[in-house]
């Protein structure tokens, strides 16, 4: 495995935030997506719904040969934390996002982690 692996961040653009009025536009997920600029080794893809609607705004991230993560309860201002987490996952030697150094929104917002797909290699 190389020193870093590309990470894909999926951000749900249709999530609402608990503090938003029901019809607030743009939605919190779209506001979060607007802050996520692709960076070295990190691709950002917008999606509509990650089936975590009650705990949105939601983001998932994955990398080849590594674990995948779903986060929720994010704020529209958490873009830097999301990108920092993606960089940690990219540089991880064991394919896990380390807890130490993980941004706080990605600690309290962890919904699930999924093991590497069997047979898939980095
Ligand atoms: S609307 Fe965002 S997870 Fe369903």
Structural notes for this entry:
With 122 residues, this protein is α+β, with helices and mostly antiparallel strands. It has one domain: Glutaredoxin, CATH 3.40.30. Helix content is 20%, strand content 21%. It has helices at residues 28-33, 79-91, 104-108; strands spanning 7-12, 42-47, 59-63, 68-71, 110-114. Strands 2-1-3-4-5 form a five-stranded mixed beta sheet. The chain is elongated. The protein starts with 6 loop residues before the first strand and ends in an 8-residue tail after the last strand. The model has no long low-confidence stretch (mean pLDDT 93).
- Which small molecules are bound? FE2/S2 (inorganic) cluster
CATH class category:
Alpha Beta
* Sequence stretches where pLDDT stays below 50 over 5 or more residues: none
- Any idea what the radius of gyration is? 14 Å
Q: Strand order across the biggest sheet?
A: 2-1-3-4-5
Sheet/helix structural class: alpha+beta
Shape: elongated
Give the beta-strand count. Answer: 5
Number of helices: 3
Q: What would the average pLDDT be, to the nearest integer?
A: 93
Count of discrete structural domains: 1
CATH superfamily: Glutaredoxin
The percent range for helix content is: 10-25%
Question: Any idea of the CATH topology?
Answer: Glutaredoxin
